[in-house]
Amino acid sequence: MASLMDQITNFFGGNTADREGLHGLFVNELKGIYYAENQLVDALQEQADAATSDEVRNAFLQHKQETRVQSERLEQIFNRLGIEADEMECDAADGLIDDAQKVVATTESGSLTRDAGLIIAGQKVEHHEIAAYGSLHTLARVLGYHDVAQILQQSLEEEKATDKKLTMLAESFVNEQAASEGDGTYADRDGDYDGTTTMGTGSSSYSGTMGSSGSERGGNYGSGTGAYDTGSTGSGYSRGTMGTDTPGGGFSGGTSTGGDGSRGI
Prior knowledge:
The chain is 60% helix and 6% strand. The protein is mainly α. The chain has two domains: 16-172, Ferritin; 196-265, no CATH class. Residues 184-265 have low confidence and may be disordered.
């Protein structure tokens, strides 16, 4: 039985008009993510400046440098395709950046609550980019742009790694201490962090919209505590709900809804 990729390739392979339309879609999606990456360079600097902990600040600064490289890779792709590097406004990216600005505006400066909010905002951006690069990777393969697909794969893997890194940061200390701030029990951010998971863990098979390059990743919310790979798995995704707060164990008993697998966010 032919794979999904083979079926897609065969479907578009026999119709010149369809292939031209698919090429146009591919170029427009390239322009959209090129716009997003260029906007994010400035946004990531603002988010780093607003962060409370050095760990979160450094994570955003590191990803800012990766984002510059990713933008340069897209310029290489435009060049290989023989077209001018150009942007197409992306409302999704603009909205996600606005969300991050709202987090800064509505949280207290110097609090780990702000860091928790910035991590959530950052992961929303990562999920958008993972979907964009995953879909572009698949389209490149369908269109026979195999060298371009390899370039896109590099950026896709970096986005997945950043998403995982932000999850680990949240689980290592940010979420727990932010919760303590809300209770008035957190007094010293220089104290020891015990690394307790507070928003649960989870993993799922995550891929672009056309099924490209799935990977196992954990979310911020979901079920269970403890090891990073604990939780529910499945293809596709649905939002996990937060469970109850238990001493020493963070949020537990989270559940998920949806019929196509589940993941934490």
